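Example record

One chain of 70 residues, shown exactly as stored in the release files.
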Amino acid sequence: MTYDKRFFIKTINKEEEIVLNKIIEEYKEHMKTYKQTFIIKIIGYFLFDFEITSQSIRVIVFENVFRDNP
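Predicted structure tokens for this chain:
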């Protein structure tokens, strides 16, 4: 969680990435239709590849829908 509790940052595994890719189009349409939804708002998905170790880390950043407004 960021210091101001506005965003969460979570690592995801390959299986979670597969699920995300399956639902992303429906998710996008839902977010456009229902602006005040309590479903998390995904800000970004990032894949970090580390050549030296040949490892990858998948990270998703999403907004905290229950954060108190400043």
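Notes: Helices lie at 14-33.
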